[in-house]
Amino acid sequence: MAWIDLLLAIIFLIIGSGCTVIVLIGLPGTWLMIALAFGLCLVQRLWAPAGSDWLVPWWVFVIGIVIAIIGEVLEFMAGALGAKKGGASKKGMLGALIGGFGGTILGTFLIPIPIVGSLIGAIVGCGIGAVIGELNASPDSRLKDTIKPATGAVVGRILGALAKLPCAFVVWVLLAVALFIQPLKTILG
């Protein structure tokens, strides 16, 4: 059965690489990879002897989940940190956070570009949120004073989306190595 286990690992390698790529367009590829690896482990249990080890140990899943959460936090916080770097007030940073989240949801429904709509919505929402936050931060705020914080929020959000890619890649490698270890040990003896 080691050859079937090896086939499962190869299936993960191929589909997992696609999951890594879709992270760039705002889809939850890292979470899909973790679910795929878990699903393949469940499938493997159909023929595995009772009491045998899982293809992927539980602690590997825990590490993968922690890395995926780090990627999500990086993406979520990046817009606010970008706004701060651009000189935003606390209200501007909060506006970037709320705008990015709301823009993701609205972009999914309002921008008729499948999948990409949520990413565009998040970026635009982040900028608009930073502008609104800055305008409400002080009675003396002017629209032209919001350009730098809003630009920082937009750039931060884009960098946040890109920051998830290495996290997804690390999870892919981690799970792929874990899936290959047991069948290769059995085959190579």
Summarize the helices and strands and which ones pair or pack.
Layout: H1 2-22, H2 29-44, H3 58-85, H4 90-110, H5 116-137, H6 147-188
Pick out its properties.
189 residues; single chain; mainly alpha
Describe this structure in words.
The protein has six helices and no strands. It is mainly alpha-helical and 189 residues long. The protein has one domain (2-188).
Give a brief description:
With 189 residues, the chain is an all-alpha fold. The chain is built from six helices and no strands.
pLDDT < 50 runs, ≥5 residues: none
Distance between the termini: 13 Å
Strand % is under 5%
Q: Number of helix segments?
A: 6
Instruction: Indicate the structural class.
Output: mainly alpha
